[in-house]
Amino acid sequence: MKFHHILLLVFMIAITVCGEDIPKKIEDIEIDTMKYLSTDDIEKKYDPTRDAKGHIKEKPLQHIEAGFSNTSGNTKTTSFNAKYTYSHNTRFYELHKMNYTLEASLFMARDDDKRTAEEYKVLFNARQPLPNKWLSYLSIGWLKNDFQNFSNKVDLSIGLGKILFSDKKQHLILKLGPAVNYEDYTSGGNRSYTSLNEYIEYQRRIKEYSKFYIKIGAKENFSDMQKDYEINSLIGLSVAVEDRIDLTIEYNAFYDNLPSENIDKKDTKTVIRLGYRF
């Protein structure tokens, strides 16, 4: 008799002797297994609305806005402005949710068939909340405005911030950090320098999608902080018209203490936009 015949015979004898106990043992094993394998765990693992750690994925928020004005008669003026915003919250390892935002905007104006303003701007912001209401941030900006003598204006800044207070109605945030800047001038030439950037933001929520906000940023060249600086301020009011439609009014004031030749130190604009969220 071969070895595998002997092994089969032993197995048959074992079933005969212990036949009554085996089903019970198999049943016990199944019960123990189901104790550690729940339907919720399977759903979380394969749920497309959750990430690998089981956290709920948040959908990104996108916002398109546009505004237009036109006058005729004694004067012919036309202006157009548009803005696109992409905002999303995500988790970085086990830290709090990180927020990153991409904004792209343009502003153009004509007076008596002569172009008087043209500006293109792109801004990327990433903000990571830290314990005790601190935060870290990364900001990359690009601007083109020939009327301010900027053919290309690029800045990269990093730093820390502090949330002074924050609740469901309002928040106040301060940021401070160094930046690397590069400026290419329309009149010719360029320069690069490092600066200290300061930023303050206050927002008051009126309703779910209605808010009032003030944003003020300052940039000081480390080489000459008393004379070579810029201040950019923005005051805005956004009011929800429908569930996904809002109306925004903004006033922007830009001040450059050392502008290029024949360029005014102060530049202001007021825009009105109608927006759609999706």
Short description:
With 278 residues, the chain is mainly beta.
How would you sum up this structure, described in words?
The structure is a single chain. This protein has 278 residues and is mainly β. It has two domains: 1-37, no CATH class; 53-277, Beta Barrel (Porin), CATH 2.40.160. 14% of the residues lie in helices and 61% in strands. The chain has three helices and twelve strands; from the N terminus they run H-H-H-E-E-E-E-E-E-E-E-E-E-E-E. It has a twelve-stranded antiparallel barrel.
**CATH class descriptor of the largest domain:** Mainly Beta
Number of helices: 3
Strand order of the largest sheet: 1-2-3-4-5-6-7-8-9-10-11-12
> Which of globular, elongated, flat, extended, rod-shaped describes the shape?
globular
Point out poorly predicted stretches: 14-49
CATH topology heading of the largest domain: Porin
Q: In CATH terms, what is the architecture of the largest domain?
A: Beta Barrel
Cα gyration radius (Å): 31 Å
| Estimated helix fraction | 10-25%
Instruction: Briefly note the structural class of the backbone.
Output: mainly beta
Q: What is the element string, with H for helices and E for strands?
A: HHHEEEEEEEEEEEE
Count of individual domains: 2
Strand content: over 45%
Mean pLDDT: 82
Largest sheet: 12 strands, antiparallel, barrel
Cα separation of the termini: 77 Å
CATH superfamily of the largest domain: monomeric porin ompg
Number of strands: 12
